[in-house]
Amino acid sequence: MPNIYDISMTIEESMQVWKNYEAKKPKITNVQNHDQGKPHESLLTINTHTGTHVDAPLHMLADGATIETISLERLVGPARVLDLTHVVGSITKDDLVPFAIQPGERLLFKTASSLSEEFLMEFPFLREDGAKYLADIGIGLVATDALGIERAQAEYPTHRTLMRADVIIVEGVRLKDVKAGNYTLVIAPLKLTGIDASPARAFLMD
Predict the structure, then answer these.
(1) Mutual orientation of helices 128-137 and 157-164 as an angle, nearest 10°?
(2) How far apart are the C-alpha atoms of 101 and 133, rounded to whole Å?
(3) Residue 28: CB partners within 8 Å, gap ≥ 6?
(4) 76 falls in which pLDDT band (50, 70, 90)?
């Protein structure tokens, strides 16, 4: 049996969310229970960009495709974890060139965000030139361990460059216990339709 690495965030009310905004936190409410003589049931109220999630192009492109258009075939298959824990600030083209990235690759970025369970306000992000480099190569998917693939860039050029090049964006993976190297990736978003993103369970197998 292969080793399986769960790289998903746990959905809970105390989890890290984007910029620690209270409104972004999931809410779990008990709606009936055994003390009432009923089966125990809970209501989950959750933003579609909570924890480990897959972005659909609609998130950043007015005419973008919705989440159901992303096939499972594109979310499952060979992948490579890149160790970028040394990067401070932003991931640039120069940071990526040494990895000899190939067309169609699924890439996972392991950065300082994987080493913290708190939201890092200055998390390492993929800069516009890095995104253009990946788009020009023609990669298939990029996953990052931060809750966003970019920050501090007007007009969201990283998201939009990747989405216009049909590169799938996954945010919020957990890679602390995963070494750089080659794996089989499985990402399973909820089967939602017509919207901009979906929370997902994600894991790697070696």
Answers:
(1) 10
(2) 10
(3) 12, 13, 42, 43, 44, 45
(4) very high
